[in-house]
């Protein structure tokens, strides 16, 4: 009898060990907690912020439909400091607690790795023993609260939202969700996205949708099973109390693979002039810009004069492409332009458009390098994951920066792994889709699209009157549709993070407003020590500050209502005096009727002073602050 009781007791103890109710990991500061469990042979997770559930019990799997059995777990912690090649910060701390579950999936086995940071978390599967299976799907549900509201990109249209979860079943057409998805809860803000797709060969782009049957946001992407082991991209949930902090959140970078370029010293972020939007502009001395040698020499002269690192030559420098050959424009002496740029110490970037013919990707990047180009702007490459990955690695092998144009893939975190992936047009740029691009749209994109990484948005037009009048060949199709002020344009170049800030107007316009252009010219693009979003409200305003050394640049913009933001200089050092230059709208400035009126003034400030940044409708406000 005693033996039988001991046997039953041991059996109960063993059952408890194998069927533990839940496994959990918390952030180093204790505010964020994730809890995982096995329920009916399905692994589920929950996310808690300060004790309150922000994601309810949700399935996460790598082989959906296959019985999952948690076999064991282990935990660890890590803290390291690393330096990106370029970015919003010169130094990033990666501190997290990690939980790893060993899971049996039929004959296969998996590890589910969960890393919990103070500002978010990531899930990643490692799968082995899948010889008899052809395909795997990384599947993740997000069971949100009924009162939560969603915001998300929509390509060439303004970002969507707020879309309240409880209203989705009543929509006549179910929304097509895109990353990054922003979730406004009662407290805090979340963002759902992916990181390090680059390091997961075989996986397709994430498919994000709202599943009416499950009543949840669902993310999935598939891969063909091959080799001995599959590692998935990271499923990421960012968590911040302030919406603007999602944009400077470093969790996606911390989850991305470290730098893979042995010597990245050739990778130099900076500003670039750009010719495409200037075509048709006529100067006061009668010169008209176009795709020709003389126009390009003018850009190079201005870049050299104002210490602008790059000049980007866009489409139509060649008529067509075929295997191993470009048919150059007869209006352009490209070699003369290349030689002149080298003489003036200005680096060149060159556009390539697959719609004009295929040169051949294996030969393309070495050819651009042989011309002395420092980078490639790649147009119309298609939403193709392997193609994008190959373009990044091939351009790196040829020491070329790469700027992805025209609906690129959001390879979030790739700028850590391959820092030559300098920017991408995961937005719609200035003067594109003018019916959609309003001050409100800009603010939404700065708070949504920008979460996934650097953006090529082409801010910084100064000839707003001429553009709205229709003076440019590549201007907006609808006249008087461009609502902005020149100060807002300057502020936007700072607010949108990019390793390559592309300024799109004519040199003469920047020379005419040289005192305002100073704010753009002096920015150490991509070489920031620190970045902060000081204030932000979706679609209404955003104020961003970036520091290098003892100098701060602050840019703010407002919607078409205009308004005043009180900006407290609590980020300055105590006991120091600072010189400040203000670049401001005036009382007469208006984004529609008087966009080019501005004022520049100087002064002195100290820590904790409050600046009242008054902005016109569609306007902006800029400050350059440096220690005395």
TrEMBL record:
Key words, A-Z: Calcium, Glycosidase, Hydrolase, Signal
Annotated Glycosyl-hydrolase 97 catalytic domain residues: 277-425
Signal peptide: 1-19
Sequence ranges assigned to domain Glycosyl-hydrolase 97 N-terminal in this UniProt record: 26-258
InterPro entries: Aldolase_TIM (IPR013785), GH (IPR017853), GH-type_carb-bd (IPR014718), GH97_C (IPR029483), GH97_catalytic (IPR019563), GH97_N (IPR029486), Glyco_hydro_b (IPR013780), Glycosyl_hydrolase_97 (IPR052720)
Classification via SUPFAM superfamilies: (Trans)glycosidases (SSF51445)
UniProt cross-references to Pfam families, sorted A to Z: GH97_C, GH97_N, Glyco_hydro_97
Quaternary structure note: Monomer.
Name the UniProt record assigns to this protein: Glycoside hydrolase family 97 protein
Species lineage: Bacteria, Pseudomonadati, Bacteroidota, Cytophagia, Cytophagales
């Amino acid at each position: 009898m005693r033996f039988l009781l001991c046997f039953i007791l041991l059996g109960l103890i063993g059952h408890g060990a194998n069927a533990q109710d839940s496994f959990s990991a918390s952030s180093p500061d204790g505010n964020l907690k994730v809890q995982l469990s096995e329920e009916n042979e399905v692994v589920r997770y929950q996310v808690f912020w300060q004790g309150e559930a922000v994601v309810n019990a949700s399935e996460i799997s790598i082989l959906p439909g296959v019985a999952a059995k948690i076999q064991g777990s282990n935990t660890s912690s890590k803290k390291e400091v690393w330096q990106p090649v370029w970015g919003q910060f010169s130094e990033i701390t990666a501190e997290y607690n990690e939980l790893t579950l060993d899971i049996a999936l039929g004959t296969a086995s998996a590890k589910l790795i969960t890393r919990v940071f103070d500002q978010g978390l990531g899930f990643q599967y490692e799968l082995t023993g899948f010889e008899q299976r052809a395909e795997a799907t990384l599947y993740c549900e997000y069971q949100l609260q009924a009162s939560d509201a969603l915001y998300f990109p929509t390509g060439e249209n303004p970002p969507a939202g707020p879309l309240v979860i409880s209203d989705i079943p009543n929509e006549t057409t179910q929304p097509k969700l895109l990353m990054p998805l922003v979730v406004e809860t009662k407290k805090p803000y979340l963002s759902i996205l992916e990181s390090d797709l680059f390091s997961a060969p075989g996986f397709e782009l994430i498919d994000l949708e709202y599943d009416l049957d499950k009543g949840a946001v669902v993310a999935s992407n598939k891969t063909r099973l091959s080799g001995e082991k599959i590692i998935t991209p990271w499923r990421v949930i960012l968590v911040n109390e302030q919406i603007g902090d999602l944009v400077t959140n470093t969790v996606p970078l911390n989850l991305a693979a470290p730098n893979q370029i042995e010597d990245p010293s050739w990778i130099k972020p900076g500003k670039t002039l750009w010719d495409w939007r200037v075509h048709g502009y006529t100067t006061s001395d009668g010169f008209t810009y176009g795709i020709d040698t003389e126009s390009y020499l003018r850009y190079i002269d201005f870049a050299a004069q104002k210490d602008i690192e790059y000049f980007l030559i866009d489409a139509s420098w060649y008529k067509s492409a075929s295997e191993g050959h470009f048919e150059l424009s007869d209006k352009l002496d490209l070699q003369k332009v290349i030689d002149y740029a080298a003489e003036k110490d200005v680096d060149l970037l060159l556009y390539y458009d697959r719609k004009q013919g295929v040169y051949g990707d294996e030969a393309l990047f070495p050819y651009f390098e042989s011309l002395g180009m420092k980078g490639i702007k790649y147009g119309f490459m298609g939403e193709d994951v392997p193609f994008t990955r190959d373009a990044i690695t091939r351009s790196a092998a040829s020491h070329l920066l790469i700027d992805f144009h025209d609906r690129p893939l959001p390879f979030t975190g790739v700028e850590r792994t391959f820092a030559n992936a300098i920017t991408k047009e995961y937005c719609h740029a200035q003067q594109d889709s003018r019916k959609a691009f309003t001050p409100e749209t800009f603010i939404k994109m700065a708070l949504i699209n920008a979460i996934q990484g650097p953006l090529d948005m082409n801010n910084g037009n100064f000839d707003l009157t001429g553009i709205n009048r229709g003076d440019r060949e590549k201007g907006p199709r609808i006249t008087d549709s461009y609502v902005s002020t020149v100060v807002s344009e300057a502020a936007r170049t700072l607010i949108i993070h990019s390793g390559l800030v592309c300024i799109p107007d004519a040199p003469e316009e920047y020379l005419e407003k040289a005192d305002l252009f100073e704010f753009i010219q002096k920015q150490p693009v991509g070489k920031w020590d620190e970045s902060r979003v000081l204030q932000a409200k979706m679609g209404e305003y955003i104020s961003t500050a970036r520091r290098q050394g003892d100098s701060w640049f602050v840019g703010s913009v407002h919607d078409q209502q205009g308004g005043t933001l009180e900006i407290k200089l609590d980020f300055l050092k105590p006991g120091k005096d600072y010189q400040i230059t203000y670049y401001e709208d005036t009382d007469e400035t208006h984004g529609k009727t008087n966009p080019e009126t501005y004022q520049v003034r100087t002064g002195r400030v100290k820590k904790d002073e409050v600046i009242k940044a008054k902005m016109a409708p569609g306007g902006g406000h800029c400050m350059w602050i440096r220690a005395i």
